[in-house]
Amino acid sequence: MRRIFKYTFSLFMFAWLTAGAQTNGLDIGGLRFGFDISRIAVPFLEDGRVEYDGSIDLRINKDLYPVIEVGWGDFETEKINFKYRSTGYSLRAGIDKNYLKKDNADEMGMFFVGVRYGLSFFKHESPFLKISDPYWGDYYGAIPIKNLHAHWLEFTTGIRVEIIKNIYLGWSLRGRLLLNKSDDTNMSPYYIPGYGKVSGNTNMGFRYSIFYQLPLKG
Question: Residue 144 carries which DSSP code?
Fold first, then answer.
């Protein structure tokens, strides 16, 4: 837990120092709510996987946007000799920096680069497990539910474009670096909500989202 607080503190110090280095004062702009519509396609592309993901970002000056993202994921797969399920929640917090030149500081269209700290609380299990042995015969068993957590860093880049007044569409690429995951002596996590499938310490992701901007200025 101490490591989690250390990484969280370091990330927000980085965001704060970046903001402080590039603005002499805050200029609060629009509050924007997003929903990742690409998650709707996930169950059709991969059977047994369901995910939902939303976000809130706030413009604090012309180019800086603190972001909070929340998500839920459920993954289930079944093979000849085992069945696996993982389900839980995720939270990601960080900041985006816009590199798109604007004629009006209140515009919220952007080409951005950002960083996130991600945290997931989830549980996994294997309700069916078969171990084959030609001498002793087959063994059938199960691995019970265990509560776990994981955290990671996430680096992102993408665009957001206003299609009609206060409505935006945008995509982003995500590169993730797994920092730590809690141990299960019986079975290592195969899927972490918010992070994805675990194969080594890195993975990639894609988001395509729709946003509504709530103007904070008259």
Answer: E
